[in-house]
Specification:
This protein is of the alpha/beta class. The chain is 35% helix and 11% strand.
């Protein structure tokens, strides 16, 4: 595997050297060679490559990648430029507008957030085309739980944004004496009115970061 850079190879070495990770790799070799899998294998670890550990400010945890063509590119909730905005992402942009007064963008590529210090990681990093959660039991949960625990242990003063039951189940992995957890309903149209809208997590994230001597996240994708 090509090195991730940004300090991640050293942090995640205990996971990459574990036998469980080797089982994931063998599973992926088979899946990518027999089926269409998203994201592209070269985009698989973009959440780490775009956000150096030294610049980490926040973690947004998704469930699994989009499973239709042209959408997933290794960052949770993000879609490539030119792709129609998924409903959950539309609701995220509406909440940012209401929270910070930022105009809703037409492009759903969240790479700018990643480069601003937001780790956009799914709990499951791959999916077979057209089949949601098809890789949920291959071992990714073990891996991403390990990532969360290592970030919690080795860094300080980051914000973990947990939307929906799947993400919120990860809260016990995070040391709340060192980090802030913000959790509420998922931005999906099925649940957004149950606490996502009005959560103001974007301004709350920046208030926490500034209060701990960090630069705020630039949530504006229009600039």
């Amino acid at each position: 595997m090509k090195p991730l850079g940004g300090g991640w190879d050293e942090l995640l070495e205990p996971l990459f050297s574990d036998e469980k990770y080797q089982h994931i790799r063998q599973f992926l070799i088979y899946e990518y060679s027999h089926y269409t899998v998203y994201p592209d294998m070269y985009d698989l670890y973009n959440c780490f490559r775009f956000t150096p550990l030294s610049s980490l400010k926040a973690v947004i945890l998704g469930q699994d990648p989009y499973h239709e063509p042209g959408q997933a590119h290794g960052l949770c909730f993000s879609v490539k430029a030119g792709v129609k905005l998924p409903p959950s992402l539309q609701n995220i942009f509406k909440e940012i507008r209401d929270d910070l007064g930022i105009e809703e963008p037409n492009c759903g590529d969240l790479t700018k957030w990643a480069k601003s210090g937001v780790l956009l990681m799914n709990a499951t990093l791959t999916v077979r085309e057209h089949i949601a959660n098809s890789h949920a039991k291959c071992g990714w949960s073990w891996f991403t739980d390990g990532v969360i625990k290592l970030i919690s242990e080795r860094t300080r003063n980051n914000v973990f944004i947990l939307w929906g039951g799947n993400a919120r189940s990860k809260a016990p992995l995070i040391d709340t004496s060192k980090h802030l957890i913000l959790q509420c309903a998922h931005p999906s149209p099925l649940s957004a009115y149950n606490g996502f809208f009005g959560c103001r997590f974007f301004s709350k994230t920046n208030e926490y970061l500034v209060s701990h001597g960090k630069q705020p996240v630039d949530w504006d994708l229009n600039t």
